[in-house]
Amino acid sequence: MAQRAGGAPAERAAELRNKLVDQCERLQLQSAAIAKHMAEVLPAKSQSVLTAANGARELVIQRLMFVGKVCENEEQRLLENVHAEEERVHQSILTQQAHWTEALQKLDALRTYLVDMITNLDDQGLVRAEKEIFERTEVAEGILEPQESVKLNFNQQCVQSPLLHRLWASAVLSCITGSQEIHIDEKTVSPHLSLSEDKKTLTFSPKKAKLDLDCPDRFDHWPNALATAAFQTGLHAWKISVEKSCAYKLGVCYGSLPRKGSGNEVRLGFNAASWVFSRYDKEFRFLHAGQPQPVELIKSPAEIGVLVDFAGGEVLFYDPDSCAILFSHRETFAAPLYPVFAVAHHSISLVQ
Q1: Are 339 and 237 contacting, i.e. CB atoms less than 8 angstroms apart?
Q2: What is the pLDDT of residues 254-300, one digit of tens each?
Q3: β strands within the chain, DSSP E
């Protein structure tokens, strides 16, 4: 019994020793794996990263050089168009000047002739000269009054460039959007809409909320709302998330837009004081002055960028995901513009 009892510690020690040997072997293998990783994998990874980074740099440089070359070519083409249009208008003006100078000379000569007839001829002489007088006055009657002619105006269409337009819109939206805070004015919000605490999200409800409808700034029928501030100079851009809604309007309007009632004078896009991009189910349109213009889209945008060039007289709607211009409209704006919103399904949100 004593021998058997004394053997238990020896067996336990042997078992522990074997476990330690196994652990040492595992540690050795683990150390070998780490050493190999440090000696082979990490240097290879480092070289791979260096190669990838150099390739990425080269790709950026190549693509920007290509874009730059294309932009240079487009710049040259457009400047040549501007020069050609300038020359055309200038030549038209010179032609008109020559024509009307000749016409003035004819009229002056006729007037001198008629004055001479009246002054120097007696009644019989005037009667004998009637045919000649008629022939000369007939020439004068053929000289028409000057009329306004588009040939004498500089045609801004000469600088139309889809490439430049798209690049310009992308650059403006990238640089300006988020740099200016746009908030929705709570005083203008329709009772069919609720406004989030951060003044960025409008949510539609078919049931009217209990709001002060006597407030002169509030829309009391259509689900509209205005931003807090207007602008009347420069470039302005903002983005709106519309992926949750299939019924909305986005754009700009004059502050004079009426707020009360259900008439078209209040309905966005159905009057001369508002310019909006509209979606209703699968139908997309640009609306202004009650004249809808369909916009054909393959898919519904998740976000829409609105860009206003006040000095250039343009409002533009843009899909930031595809870098596609959805619609562009030119207008000579006569008053400050407010960002305007309407939603009749779920919600839309201003994007920072």
Answers
A1: no
A2: 999 999 999 999 999 999 999 999 999 999 999 999 999 999 998 99
A3: 193-195, 201-204, 224-226, 235-241, 247-254, 274-280, 283-288, 293-294, 303-309, 314-319, 324-330, 337-343, 347-351
